[in-house]
Amino acid sequence: MKSLTVTHADMRALGYCNRGGRAWFARHGLDWSRFLEVGLPAKTLLATGDVMAQAVVAQAQTRQDEEQDGR
User: In terms of domain of life, where is this protein from (predicted)?
Assistant: First the structure.
């Protein structure tokens, strides 16, 4: 996966709430504020091994594919 960035919009597209997101980021030692500002690399989220991270990375990939296809 080449430099895919996962954004807050990707998380929200799946219906994930901010409260749960903040708690999840804290549990995994990830910077919630940075995520809100610029997103995080997909590989950082996938390194958690969490299925929710896998889902949001898949959403980000779909978004990126659609943007590249001009959809």
Answer: Bacteria
